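Dock magnesium ion; give full complex structure.
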Amino acid sequence: MSDQAEQLRKVCRPGKTDQGAAKSFGKAGLSRVIAFASGKGGVGKTSLVVNLGLSLTRIGYRVVVIDADLGLANVDVMINTIPRYNLADVINGSKKLREVIFKGPLDLKIIPGGSGLYDLANLDQVKRKALLDQFIDLETEGDFILVDTAAGISRNVINFVSAADDFILVTTPEPTALTDAYGMLKVVRNEGLREKSHVLVNSTRNYQEGQKVFNGLKRVVKQYMPAMELDYLGDVRYDSAVKSAVHELCPFVISNPRSPASIALNRIAWRIAADEETVMPEKKGIAGFINRLKKLP
Ligand SMILES: Nc1ncnc2c1ncn2[C@@H]1O[C@H](COP(=O)(O)OP(=O)(O)OP(=O)(O)O)[C@@H](O)[C@H]1O
Ligand SMILES: [Mg+2]
C-alpha cells in the first residue's frame, strides 16, 4: 500500500467518534437542503450521499448528513462508527440535537436517525414541533444538509423530498428501479411542492447508458407530467471500489480517490457547487425546510 493510501485510510480508522461535535457553532448562513430518494431499495443512495458529502467537504463546504434510513447499510456503518445516541434520544428529551451530531472523516457531520426520523410522520404535533425546532441549529453547521432517506414511498420519505430545497432521485438502469423512480416522481408531483427534480443514474456500464436511462425517463415524464422539470446530474459507473469500500468500512472517495466512482462523485459535487447560484432553485435554508415539514401530514 502506498504512503498516500495508508494516510487516507487512517482517516477512516474507528475510534474517531466525536459525538456532540456541534459544540462550537460556526457562522450563520442559509443551508441548502438536498434530499435523496429512489423508490426501489439498494440502488446506492447511502453510498452516494456519504461520498458526495465528503467530495463537497473537500471542495471546502461544511456538510451535514442526516441519516433518515433504517436500512442495513446505513451511514454510520459506512464510516465505521457506532454512535451512542441518535434522534430517538432527542425525541425523548434526553439529548439535544447538537449532542447527537458526530464528526466523521474530513469533518463531515452526521446525524444518526435511529428510529427518530422514521417515526417523524407518526409523532404527535408537540413532539414533532419540539424536534423540528431544534433543526434550526443546523443552519450554522452546514452549507449543505444532505438527507439520506429509506427505500420505498412512505409518507416520511415523501415529506423529506417535498420539504427539501432540492431532490436528487437516484436510480440504476434496471427496469424495476426505473419503474419505482417514476412512481416516486408521480407521488412527488401529486404533493405539488416540487417543480424540478435532479436525476443521478448509478451503477452504469458507461456514460451512454446513463444518458439513455435519463432520456427515457425524461420522455415519459414529459408526456405524463409535463409540469415536472428533470435535470440530469450525471452517472456513476458500476465500480468494484464501491463494494470494497463497504467491506473496508471506508468511503471510496477516501480509500480509492482515483476510482471511476470517486471521479464521478467529485464531478457531481463540483457541478452542484457551480450550479448552486445559477441552475438550482433559490434556497430557503433550514428554516424553510422545517416550516414545510411542519405543514406536511
Ligand atoms: N456504483 C456502484 N458500483 C458498485 N456497487 C455499488 C454502486 N453503488 C452502490 N453499490 C452497492 O450497492 C449496495 C447498496 O448500496 P446502498 O446501501 O448505498 O444503497 P441504498 O439505496 O442506500 O440501499 P437502501 O435502499 O437499502 O437504503 C452496496 O453493497 C453498495 O456497495
Ligand atoms: Mg441506504
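Observed: The domain at 29-295 is CATH 3.40.50.300 (Rossmann fold).
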